[in-house]
Amino acid sequence: MDGSALEELDERIAGCRACPRLVAWREEVARTRRAAFTDWTYWGRPVPGFGPPDASLLILGLAPAAHGGNRTGRMFTGDRSGDVLYGALHEVGLASQARAERIGDGLELYGVRITSPVHCAPPANKPTPGERDTCRPWLVRELTLLRPSLRAVVVLGAFGWQAALPAFTAAGWTVPRPRPPFAHGAHVRLHRAEGGEPSGSREDLGGGAGVPGDGSLALHGCFHVSQRNTFTGRLTPAMLREVLRTAATSAGLPTTPPTG
Ligand code: SF4
């Protein structure tokens, strides 16, 4: 797709002030800062998606962290959750490096984009249902722009799953009824809605043997990379790498073979 449309969307998202509680919180955190980051000028705004405009795999989180994305201005950048996520992406060959410290640190994603259903850091990492719904049109627009190349999505956690399903419907895919429940390892195929335009084939994009060219989307569930999950071992690096490899295969992306 034309990358300028996505860039324009990212700029519009970064200027959004639609949720008064989140605007107040993200700006207060940016003013007060954490002791370890007093030399930083916090971003303090909505954090747009990160990754190429022709991504075939999308990773959907929950919302930026107060001292991570809200500080650095890039998804999952500058916090422990990001260390886990980018570490795994690098190990499976979908990121240029494991390190994610700040914009301009050289990190590149290969065929992958990362975004979230809520673009502002919420108090206690908990957006309200109203804030989730207010932010949804941004996700619908992003999905619509990515549609020509998008083949698979990894949703991190139940909140993202519930927030994303209506966005997939609004962006032109059919979500089964009753709605599929979130589970780690869940795999659901979303077909293009009747009358929706097929969005090209993988062959058009230069690869991906065995990936359907009917515009359908492989949806994969994965526990969130939050510290609560990774510190307790509920989500291990191996579990995360396995979901990423499976989803990359659904998306027609090459990965490095597992070691050991
Ligand atoms: S959460 Fe979304 S809708 Fe609300 S202010 Fe942030 S960017 Fe805007």
TrEMBL record:
Gene3D superfamilies: Uracil-DNA glycosylase-like domain
Location of the Uracil-DNA glycosylase-like domain: 48-244
Annotated source species: Streptomyces griseoaurantiacus
UniProt family annotation: Belongs to the uracil-DNA glycosylase (UDG) superfamily. Type 5 (UDGb) family.
Transmembrane feature ranges: none
InterPro entries: UDG_Type-4/5, UdgB-like, Uracil-DNA_glycosylase-like, Uracil-DNA_glycosylase-like_sf
Lineage: Bacteria, Bacillati, Actinomycetota, Actinomycetes, Kitasatosporales
Name of this protein: Type-5 uracil-DNA glycosylase
Keyword Kinase: no
Record keyword ATP-binding present: no
Keywords noted in UniProt: 4Fe-4S, DNA damage, DNA repair, Hydrolase, Iron, Iron-sulfur, Metal-binding
